[in-house]
Design a protein that fits this description.
The chain is built from 16 helices and 13 strands. The chain is of the alpha/beta class and 453 residues long.
Length: 453
């Protein structure tokens, strides 16, 4: 039971293990394992919920709120301040944290009014250490690897396939832990800002003449040798950190639920992580009803949307087309089974948006003081379409998850405002070139000042 505001609230018997999503076969969490050895299905991290329920919902809320007001180790992390729900048995000495999480949840009143909604919030995960929500998963995964190495497992490096953000997060946390990092990137398909991050952190960067799906195939083969540890979201340890985003949103709302949560989807570990966090809130009694979930995909890379249109038919891998939302340009998502399960359990929907729709949605949000990445544009574009269709009804409250900082995609932002994309940039802001002359400046400002008079 909780004895003070910040003490480890680990009830007797609290533990976590790996469990297959088909058949529920269990494995020790300290095994290097990414799929069930019998069925080949993906694995999840499962928790002893009976043990966690020994602490009441009110006590969990008090504990998590008390830790949110502290900046000591490990409470300064939004993930490790909820450590009993993540890795209850980890030695704190093995935790690798860069004070991730605790990201702002910002209101968007003009958008809410425009769409006839009660409230819209934007969860700014891009304010994290490497500029994306991937930090939430990597702090747990790298901490776990650090623990495995301390236990004597012969892990020599960590590796991932990436469209940019995963490699940046892995390289940062692994370099912090002193663990070599190998990243496989699709040549010419990520931004300069994303590419330079793993390079700067000293990762072994391999740029391959393929797309993300091709990189993913190779990294799975390379990590079949268990001396190289797989860090992509098919690894359930990644889900453990990312699941805290939904918990944190509800905590920031005073433990109240939004009606809907919208998240962009590529490899699809994110929506399954979101559902995993909500599951724990429900099972501990902190919340007593479910929000609805929506996954937003770019129309150029929409295998989940295609499946959803057919009643969640089996995945049909596709060759993803080039999209401005490059981090979700994935045609064969590894976490597809997890995502379908999450959406079915949370009465979820999937929406797609065009290149123009995602760019316009990001630009309109920026006019409210944001600086949205294209993937956040996908989620905001989906919000507009879902409200327009009446799927999200008037008067609803919606939390939209922003997955990365817009500064990582400055080329996208610049191209939009310079009207260099394949569609008219309706909401662009032009730079006015003038001579260094006061009269010319005053003439140029006259329309603005008259409009505001």
């Amino acid at each position: 039971m909780v004895t003070n505001n910040t003490a480890l609230a680990k009830p007797a018997g609290a533990r976590a293990w790996l469990e297959s999503i088909q058949g529920k076969r269990q494995y020790d969490i300290n095994q290097v394992l990414y799929r069930c050895t019998q069925s080949g299905s993906l694995l999840n991290v499962a928790h002893d919920m009976d043990a966690l329920r020994q602490t009441s919902a009110a006590e969990w809320r008090r504990l998590f709120d008390a830790r949110m007001g502290r900046w000591d180790f490990p409470n300064a992390s939004g993930i490790w301040s909820k450590r009993e729900w993540v890795l209850p048995d980890i030695d704190p000495a093995h935790i690798i944290t860069l004070q991730e999480g605790r990201s702002p949840l910002l209101e968007m009143p003009p958008l809410a009014r425009e769409l006839g909604l009660e409230q819209v919030w934007l969860k700014e995960c891009g304010t994290s250490h490497t500029g994306s929500f991937k930090d939430l998963g990597m702090t747990v995964l790298v901490s776990h690897v650090n623990s495995l190495i301390a236990r004597g497992l012969p892990i020599r490096a960590v590796a991932c396939a990436s469209t940019g953000d995963t490699s940046a997060a892995l390289a940062a946390y692994a370099s912090r832990a002193g663990i070599p990092t190998i990243v496989f990137l699709p040549a010419g398909k990520i931004t300069t800002a994303q590419l330079i991050q793993p390079i700067s952190n000293g990762a072994h960067v391999l740029s391959l003449d393929t797309d993300f799906d091709g990189c993913m195939r190779i990294v799975q083969e390379v990590t079949a040798d268990q001396s190289i540890y797989l860090a992509n979201s098919m690894n359930p340890l990644r889900i453990e950190g990312q699941k805290t985003v939904g918990i944190e949103i509800i905590q920031q709302l005073g433990w109240q639920l939004p009606d809907w949560m919208i998240i962009p989807g590529g490899n699809l570990g994110n929506v399954s992580a979101l559902a995993a966090g909500l599951d724990m809130l429900l099972e501990t009694g902190i919340i007593n009803q479910k929000p609805r979930l929506a996954v937003a995909q770019a129309a150029h890379a929409n295998p989940l949307y295609t499946s959803y249109q057919k009643g969640f038919a089996d995945l049909e891998p596709m060759q993803a087309k080039t999209t401005l939302a490059s981090a979700i340009q994935i045609g064969n998502p590894v976490s597809f089974p997890r995502a379908v399960d999450a959406l079915q359990r949370y009465n979820g929907v999937v929406e797609e948006v065009s290149e123009a729709e995602l760019a316009h949605a990001a630009a309109l949000a920026d006019r409210q003081g944001f600086f949205c990445c294209p993937h956040t544009g996908v989620a905001l574009g989906a919000l507009r379409k879902l409200t327009g269709k009446g799927v999200i009804p008037g008067g609803a409250s919606v939390a939209v998850i922003s997955t990365a900082h817009g500064l990582k995609f400055s080329e996208f932002k610049t191209a939009y405002h310079e009207n260099r994309l394949d569609f008219d940039a309706t909401y662009r802001t032009e730079v006015i070139r003038l001579p260094a002359d006061v009269q010319a400046v005053q003439e140029a400002l006259k329309p603005l000042l008259e409009e505001r008079a």
